[in-house]
Amino acid sequence: MANPLPTHAQVVIIGGGIHGCSVAYHLAKAGWKDVILLERKTLTSGTTWHAAGLVGQLQGSHATTAFASYGVELLQEIEAETGQNPGFRQSGSISIAVNEERLAELKRKADFASLFGIEAHYMNTAEIAERWPLMNAEGVLGGIHMPSDGSANPIDLTQALAKGARMHGATIRERIKVDEVLTEGGNVTGVRTDEGTITADFVVNCSGMWARELGRQDGVGVPLHACEHYYLVTEPIPDLPSDLPVLRSYCDGTYWKEDAGKLLFGFAHFHAKAWAKDGIPDSFEFDSLPFVDDDVMEVLELALNRVPILQETGIRTFFNGPESYSHDGRFTLGEAPDLKGYYVLAGVNSTGIQSGPGAGKALADWIMAGHPTMDLAEMDPARIEEWQARDPYLRERCAETLVLTYAMHWPGRQRETARGLRRTPFYHAMKAKGAVYSEAQGWERPGWFAPEGVTPEYDYSFHRPSWFDHAQAEQKAARTGVAMIDYSMLGKLMVEGPHAMRFLQRICTNDINMPVGRVAYTLMLNERGGIESDVTVARHGVDSFMLMSSISHTRRDRDHLKRHIADGEDVRLRDATTAHAVLSVAGPKSRDLLAAVCDADLSNEAFPFNSLQHFHIGHAPVFAQRLSYTGELGWEIFITPDFAEHVFEVLWAAGEPMGLRLVGGEALNALRIEKGFLHWGHDMSYTEAPHQVGLGFVCKPDKALPFIGRDAFVARKAAGEGPFLCHIKLKEAGPLLHHNEPVLKDGQVVGYVASGGYAYQQGAAIGTCFINADNSASISNGTYAVVVEGQVVSATLSRKPLSRPQTGS
User: Fold this and answer.
1) Which UniProt keywords apply (predicted)?
2) Distance of alpha carbon 62 from alpha carbon 65, whole angstroms
């Protein structure tokens, strides 16, 4: 008779794939013994068992690369600890390019590797053909070789983690199905299984493709969907070299690896299909899906051409198995925003074997510390809104994520599925004037505007896309004339009630005890002095404030505020995002434009910077804040949706003779970088303190009511530790900066570009960058450069913005 389940555990982990076993292993190894992992069937029986087992250290972000690099370390050590061989072979990898843009992407990938000390170097076509003699080199321009990559056996690696977890005191039980996660008062309390109930302090949802449905029971959004994913394994190939590197041909949509004398080759599909639209069968265990030839024929033909020996080799295994993909290509890792003690690790987009050990450790560290110990903001469950966790949306978006796995990873690439979901009141008017839309959190937002006669559609490049000059012209209008920008999609949270001001004084670093009609830029910190968000707060009444958030962080900011309302505080939160359309009018001529259409005194004395007033434009009642993200004189005008088009038409009619130009997000990004305006998630996160990013001036530690994180802010500022956010400009006019380019000081890597753009006024690429330094004073010493596609480009660097904001007088 099996041992009965315990009635209590400190941590219950749901799911016995690589992620669940990794979390259990790292918790137990750190000394948390009261940990139990529950698996509905058998360990690895969901998707882990049929993974290809590729181990590539370099991933798409700092966090995921850290996961993968740690995974290689663990693969090299875990057999000595547990006696279980994970089947790791460090044969390296080669990624090839068959066009110039793919070669540029691969070179940028190699540049990125230098930030982590990972060896990655360029190989010419002849060198690749010598190392991978089965490859047809026709059309191959070159590639990138990473010697430390390789492959592992997914089942053996997971069993090694499970064995290590048991050795350190964790319990693992198979054939136990979790029917429900139990909660009370916004806290997790345990799980109900088919063999009894276990109370718990923490519950971890690592249930793979079941994670979405399990999370939904408790209102936890897990944005993933299983999709069909194919690979084939050949018959044995005589004299096949056992040390062949993993070969990736992204443009062919295919990868190959040696597999016990055979070739395994898999596909990043050009046309992916969501699986189990009606739910996953309860009996699923080590199951595969029907192999449909037509689903892979297009990619298979490319594979047969790239590796011709496949044309004369039999296929032993035709495999189709489900893999979970997320709506945005990012993991979901962290604590659920509305349910304390409920953690999620799921939706890793076919990178589970290479990322699983590191991701599991990161989540275990978060549980033990009570907060993330590294920057995991990109994976935050709080980025997900309710509608993004629904199946109809996920079936479209998640399948597209699979298609994009091997597609070009263009800067600013826009999704094509599930578009047109959220439109501002200016959508049609701006579309009629050439708006080419990008998408953020479901919102359609103008990216750039096509002049008459220009096709209004995005194209992409690591260099200069076709719309580059149009976006430069939009920048010019904002700097020298007048520009109009749609800000309607920015989050607007009303904070109201008798205790609203006191509450915000505690939450915000700046002094919010300001007169009605004033606006303040402020940070919100955590107890460790890290930046949880940056927002503007406008005082609309004695007990009424509007807090404005960036598009993608509206829910996160709302959750942060909600969590910090103390017992007895009379504070009400109301999302007013869709209650107001917003137009920004900015530039040296913005006062002239507004003066032509409104009944307000716009002088600096009557309407100073960071103030708020109500007036009329045409026949419409509006209110406006005098500030601008462009760094120029400007106003943000708030209009109820019913009057929105009228206000737009009035402004356009008055502004057209002045050269008024509509401006999109591509131009705005460069404008704000040039003036030193930061973006949370790129230029700062909850790991950085204000002094590191030059925002200490909005922190008022001497306020009568101390803000959250004040003492930590003061201590970290006194310690003066980096890295530090700086501003950088290339000395050559040609190259572009996008994100993550390495920054050199005297020839050594000392940091990376956080945000990049091309500034019209500077005539060069610019960016913000994080620089590792003992102290801020030492930054000015030395000669700086940036690595762009393998080329070292000289640069100037400063802690101050490249151009001083011109708020006007």
Assistant:
1) Oxidoreductase
2) 5
